[in-house]
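It is worth pausing here to work through a concrete case rather than discussing structure prediction in the abstract. The textbook approach is simple: state the sequence, then state the predicted structure, then interpret. We follow exactly that order.
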Amino acid sequence: MEAIRCEQLSKTFGDVQALQPLDLAVEAGSIFGFLGRNGAGKTTTIRLLTGLAKPTTGTAWIAGVDTTQIDSVVRQVFGYLPQDPAFYAWMTPREYLDYLTRLFRIDGAERKRRVEEMLELAGLKDAAGRRIGGFSRGMQQRLGIAQAFIHRPPVLLLDEPTSSLDPAGRYEVLELIASLRGQATVFLSSHILADVERVCDTVGIIHQGQLLLVAKRDELLAQYATNVISLEVERPEGLPALDRFVAELQAQSWVTGITSSDNVLRIAVNDPAQSKRALWPLVSKHGLALNRYEWIRPSLEEIFIRLSGGMVL
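Step two, the predicted structure:
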C-alpha cells in the first residue's frame, strides 16, 4: 500500500524550477529517507505535500487523500515537523500537548492519556513541568515529533529533524524516529547521509530539484557494492608471516589489488565466491590470528557523490 503518492508534482518560482515534475510512491509503514544537499528541493516537496504551497503542476496524496486541497480531513492524515519548529516558550510540554489535543478535538480521558503517551514517547516525562523556553534544541525536536504525532496520523513528515543538533541530540532524535517504525509511515528529509543510512529502510535521492532514484537502502548499497575485503590480523612476532601471507595473496588469480596499513589489509577481488572459499585456508596456512573480517560496502555518501557527479553535500 502507498502512504504517499505524487504525480508530476512540480514547483516553479519565477524562472527557477525548485522541483522538477516528481513521480513518487512511498510504501506504507516504511521510514523513507529523502536525501539531498541543501537547496535540492526537499523542503519544497514537503511544503507541497502538506498543502503549505500550491504546486505548479501535479497532485499529491497522503493516505489516499489529496493534500493539495487543504481541509479538515487532510489535517488528520499527516503530522508535520518543520525544520525550525516554534513553540509557546512559556508553556510546559504537558500544557502544549494538551492544547494540541483540544485543537484536534480529542476529548476527556483520551486527551489525558494521549498527552502522557506522547511525553513518554519523546522521553520528556521528567521535563513535563518545565517551560519549553529552557529546552535544548534536541529536547525541542523531540517535543516537535510528539506534537506531530499527537493525533496518531498514519504519516509523519519530518523536515531536517536532526539539523544543527549536537551528537547527543542527534542520537536521541534518531532513536525516537526509529521507535516509530510500524506505528506510522515516516517521510524524513535530510542532508545528513549517515542519519538516513542509520534509520531509513527506503531512500530517495534528489539533486537540483530532480529525483535521481528511489530504492530500498540495502538493495541500493548492494547495487553499488565493491568487491573489497577488509582483514585485521594480529601482527605475528618473529617470522614475517604477514608479509608471506600478503605475497601469496598477490599471486592469487582472484585478487586484483591489496593495500595495507599496519595490520589491516584491504583486498580487492574479481571473484567473490572463489575468494570466500580460498581466503580462510590461506589465513590458516600462515598461522594468522584474525581480529576482524568484513566485506566493505559503500556508504550512502559515496553513492550520492557518484550519482550527483561528484557534488558533495
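Step three, interpretation. The mean pLDDT is 90. The two ends are 32 Å apart (CA to CA).
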